[in-house]
Specification:
The protein is 47% helix and 19% strand. Strands 1-2-3 form a three-stranded antiparallel β-sheet, covered by helices on one side.
């Protein structure tokens, strides 16, 4: 069985909870155990192994996280620049 990756949102430990959907279908609920995280994802593949593979596949998520990190850095730089400009304006009025 494939090793289960940690939560893609916070890095926390994940628990798999099987849930019987109907007589023939089991859905697998992947729940992050970090109380501050809201990750709760269902997969209703034909077996647990396929569900784990789906959970572990996160290339699009990794790309989105990288993009968000760049945006976060840009916001921080803009905030620092704005503060610096405000200080210069205030000092110029003294």
């Amino acid at each position: 069985m494939a090793e289960l990756k940690s939560c893609p949102f916070c890095g926390g430990e994940v628990k798999i909870i099987p849930e019987q959907v109907d007589a023939r279908t089991v859905a697998y609920n992947f729940v992050c155990q970090n109380g501050d995280c809201c990750a709760n994802v269902y997969f209703d593949y034909s077996n647990k192994e396929e569900s784990i593979e789906a959970w572990n596949t996160r290339k699009p998520m990794e790309a989105k996280v990288a993009e968000l990190e760049v945006l976060h850095d840009l916001v921080n730089m803009n905030q620092k620049l704005a503060v610096s400009q405000a200080i210069s304006i205030v000092r110029g009025k003294e």
